[in-house]
Amino acid sequence: MNKFSSFINNVNNKIALFCLFIATSFLPFRHVMNFADASRAGWFSELLAISIYTADFFFLFVLFAERKHFFRHSKQNYLLFGAILVFLIAETLRNPITSLGIYSLVRIIQFLVLVYLFSKFLREQKTRLYVSATLVGIGMFESLLGFFQVIVGHSFGLYFLAEQTLSTGMAGVAKVDLNNGEKLLRAYGTMPHPNILGGFLVLSICAGLYLFYKYPSKRRISGISIIIMLAGATLTFSRSALFSIFLLIFILFWQFRLWNYFLYRRTIFYTIFIIIGILMIISPLRTAIWHRISPPTSDLFFSDRIILNEFGTKIFMSDPLFGIGLGNYFNSLTRRAPFGTGLKNWQYDYPHNTLILVMTDLGIFGTIVILYFIYKTLKPVHNSTNALLVTLLIISPLILLDHYLWTNQAGRVMLVIFLTLIPAILSKHPDTTLREERNNVPTVPTRKNNQSNL
Fold it and tell me: How far is CA 167 from the centre of its chain?
């Protein structure tokens, strides 16, 4: 036991454990413990699933490795932790399905613990680099796998990494409508849905940009990685993810003032334009991209979200102060819309708005408590409220147009890293070499300068 403790308490081993936890979180192999009960409506419902993930075992190792640090530094917050726990237990007791309520409670507690641990963990530059490299590596893998899925129209067969069985002919699989009734499969990677893959690629592109800034000598490698992940994000056809990527790139370029560098290295622009040109030349991809910009009548993006958000708002208004209780959304939805009386099978889902969903489950009071905990945990670490606000701006399309950042295990880990990595990059800005190099970036020669030199 002493050897195990000394091994796991080693700094490098701790970093490895964190990276393994991240890797297994985004290669989310799981076992559904109540599959029969989760299928009692006649189809499998994620709202009723109780799952155990490979990442959960690494989470326990991480928690064990950080046990002394965690308890030593959180004593002053015992009262806050205790109050939140009492409130969440009370919300759990409101769910008539005890096991589902407890499962939801455990996942929220895990989320809060991860916020605390990652806020401390990512303060160190070394760990930020390793985490960023892990995210980029997974992002490259997911992008290439998604590219294969889109091109061939079916899954690759990596079931041991939780890749779903996919085909353009399968019902319930996300596709883009082409002309003449044809369908193009959207990139899933190993994620449960293309939107979740798109959200993860926002995070991995952020990590890639950080590595791009940090290691000038490796910019060709990191630049190619970013371009591949941008292509992978495009093939998810996730509008919210692509909008977040636009905000991310614009804000980080503005923060680090690297416009001059990219103007100087015009080959990067040429490469991006070539990739965009290839995507536009290939007829199915061009049509699919256009249909995502200008949705046909068969696209249910807006109608489904309007329906689900309306139901979510009505359920929230039934108890706006304290919500309906943890894990109780499916029961509340079926009471308002019994099977066969209005909604299609796939519409028995969460509202596609994370803020509405959290307020529905926990009420206004519970939402304020969770936000206060996050703010109180992150503010002293990053010492910048602006960095937190900018982070929320970047991920606002993911928050306001979908729910997976709160309901999906990979999504919750994604949200934790968003809230801790981006503020660390923006507020700490440890890249002294970058600032020096940025100030020494050669200016683009103008025609007048060239003439004078001649």
Answer: 24
